[in-house]
Design brief:
- By secondary structure, the chain is of the alpha/beta class.
- The chain is built from six helices and eight strands.
- Helix 2 (43-56) runs parallel beside helix 5 (166-182).
- It starts with a helix and ends in a 13-residue tail after the last helix.
């Protein structure tokens, strides 16, 4: 079943490496830019933080400041996905799309992967698993939702939620630094590390977003 597929992929020796080259490798978006973290921090502000962190590590990134939910939240993911397809033709070396959100999981940092049957989500999940394992942070949550989340654009996609309360928002923003560092790392074999670490992994199977 689907949950068996999730666990099988998570238990693989997942690894990730950004390809060489000076072109834009990461596209940062806010499919729901009206969201606020801890009640008053705009997700766009957190996206600015991530852009600076990536650039400080020599990772070329592009921040898309389009307000996809200006017309309402319904259809925001679709509008975002359509524009990412356009951006992919402009930034031809781009491989990763990061969609930043306010977290609704209660954790300071949440990875969410869409697993709709309408597209090949498995590579997105492998990418998310690789970064999650490298971060090695028990305060990070990980979940899959049976919808596309706008992640059906042909690039590696991850949806990141930053903690919604004041305390977890601070920790979540600090964890962005760890996340950006992991985009630089290359780990061809994580099996030994996995045998030593007990990950607090929760698969949230939700029928609605």
């Amino acid at each position: 079943g689907r949950e068996t597929d999730y666990i099988s992929i998570f238990n693989e020796d997942n690894y990730f490496r950004l390809p060489p080259g000076d072109g834009v490798k990461v596209i940062i978006v806010n499919s729901h830019s009206s969201e606020k973290v801890a009640g008053d921090i705009a997700v766009a502000e957190i996206s600015d933080d991530l852009l600076r962190l990536l650039q400080s590590r020599g990772i070329s990134a592009y921040l898309d400041d389009t307000e996809y939910d200006a017309e309402g939240t319904i259809g925001a993911y679709k509008r975002m996905s359509d524009n990412v397809a356009r951006l992919k033709n402009i930034y031809k070396e781009a491989v990763v799309v990061i969609d930043l959100h306010d977290s609704d999981s209660g954790a300071p940092f949440t990875f969410t992967v869409g697993t709709s049957d309408n597209f090949a989500w498995q590579e997105n999940l492998r990418f998310a698993c690789a970064i999650y394992k490298l971060m090695d942070n028990h305060n990070a949550a990980f979940r899959m939702l049976p919808t596309s989340l706008g992640q059906d654009n042909g690039l590696l996609n991850i949806n990141i939620g930053i903690g919604g309360s004041e305390g977890t928002a601070i920790e979540g923003r600090e964890m962005l630094s760890s996340f950006s560092a992991c985009l630089q790392r290359y780990s061809p074999n994580l099996s030994e590390k996995l045998s030593e670490i007990a990950f607090a992994l929760t698969f949230s199977l939700v029928s609605n977003v």
